[in-house]
TrEMBL record:
This is ATP-binding cassette domain-containing protein. The keyword Protein transport does not apply. Pfam families: ABC_tran. It comes from Serratia marcescens. The keyword Nucleotide-binding applies. PANTHER family: ABC TRANSPORTER ATP-BINDING PROTEIN, ABC-TYPE MULTIDRUG TRANSPORT SYSTEM, ATPASE COMPONENT. One of its GO terms (molecular function) is ATP hydrolysis activity. SUPFAM superfamilies: P-loop containing nucleoside triphosphate hydrolases. Keywords: ATP-binding, Nucleotide-binding, Transport. Residues 3-89 form the ABC transporter domain.
């Protein structure tokens, strides 16, 4: 994720070498924070789409992925709710 610099060796994320293809390596990573580190007044969908943009994902692709993954997590029905209204558990 590049939060910490490696000092030796190599790192691959699902086959992507971070020295050669950091963009695709980062696209394989995700984060579901327990604490608020985003705007709690944004909707679930806004947060997911905006976070994807930090990893170089286009808005169109982010919307498609958001629908896919929020459905997988059974959260698509909550997509327009403010994040602060959701349970943390």
């Amino acid at each position: 994720s590049s939060l910490v610099n490696k000092t030796a060796g190599s790192v691959r994320v699902f086959g992507y070498d971070i020295d050669k293809d950091i963009v695709n390596a980062k696209r394989q990573l995700g984060l579901v924070p327990q604490e608020f580190n985003f705007n709690p007044f944004e909707t679930v969908l806004q947060i997911v789409v905006n976070q994807a943009g930090y990893y170089g994902v286009t808005r169109r692709e982010a919307m498609a992925r958001a629908e896919k993954y929020l459905n997988q997590l059974d959260l698509w029905g909550k997509r327009n709710e403010r994040a602060r209204m959701l349970s943390g558990g």
